[in-house]
Design brief:
By secondary structure, the chain is of the alpha/beta class. About 45% of the residues lie in helices and about 15% in strands. The strands form two sheets. It has a seven-stranded mixed β-sheet, sandwiched between helices. Strands 2-1-3-4 form a four-stranded mixed β-sheet. The longest helix is centred in the last third of the chain and has 20 residues. The N terminus is likely disordered.
Amino acid sequence: MSQSTRKADTLQEQPSNRPHKLSIAVPEEGTDRKPHSYERWLIAKLLRMAGNPPVRFQLWNDEIIESDLIIASFTLRLADPKALYQLVSNPNLAFGDLYSSGRLKVEGDLSDLMTALYRTVHKAREKWPKWLEAAWRNHNPRSTSVSDARENIHHHYDLGNEFYKLWLDHAEMQYTCAYYESPDLSLEQAQLAKLEHVCRKLRLQPGQTVVEAGCGWGGLARYMARQYGVKVHAYNISREQLAFARAEAEKQGLSHLIEYIEDDYRNIEGQYDAFVSIGMLEHVGKDHYGEMARVIRRSLKPEGMALLHSIGRNRPMLMNAWIEKRIFPGAYPPSIGEFMSICESGDFSVLDVENLRLHYAATLEHWMKRFESVQDQVTELYDAHFTRAWHMYLAGSTAAFRAGSLQLFQVVFTHGDNNNLLPTRKHLYSFPAAPEA
């Protein structure tokens, strides 16, 4: 099956069976008619419920509807009456679907629009009635069992390496938050700085052994082996990513230090000086945190160090319904309390907690610029629907980190009785972390 056919199947709009979806009858008239008075009322109500964001609506007949409480900076153009009813019935899912299909168009910068919406909706939600809060939530996230996890990962990461090569960094193909110790770093420099930052936190030494859960395209494993001389077992269930990782390790002469293993993290075997996972915890699912703690505990030597790096929340909350359903099935960003439950369950001692939220916002801004510069190529690989969906995903993610809806946690921990610890954090910041890209 071609990539374009596969993705078209995954992104096509599917009927929602969620019980919270509002039911509003859609008139049968076409797009050449004038809006009904109750349709204008629906839009005004939607704007109020969203906290009166700086947005105006342009309807299918070019009529403009906007709040008189704020000056609009963005225009949302609805192509037809049905689009309005879909948006009002299930805004959390329909906004992304309508944008992807081209039936909702945006005048203004999409990331800035989404940032404004995140901020006004966040404030407005404090006053929402219970029925509206229930309608907004994602009530039907996908399972993250062993079999479902493989399908979830396939949905997002096996789109084709050529797609990700178009807009990720050219150094190590990192699809996780970079580290901008200086705002003028290139994406390549910032991603290498992230890898170095992680290695310092793990206090790696030549000859040590490391296990990585969810290795992506293998960049961290190659960096650890190349820069620190450690031996790495790197686990992943994405076949396309592993093919790329193995080829790169062979090309760089690192195959004797790295073994890329196609298997679930739950099947990790052996004991190691370090356990690391960058950007995988979001896919584990909170029901499996205890299981993850047991895997780490049995895999870590008595004086071993562990690091988990994950998107998170300020408080427990499900992933945005559209992203979880269309882009990242099974994804759940934990709160810091839920994150700590892994450490509590494993009787671990937490050594360091860092929030890199603004670093992720900067990373996404870099990805967004690169993605926008290759949109025509993306459309050739897939189709316009896919391109618009990923444009919305990157813009919405940028906005979520800017507005504080999402966080990025790095947590370092070890066995509770390990006393072989450094007294300060000088080893992290004694010299610049950003190597030459």
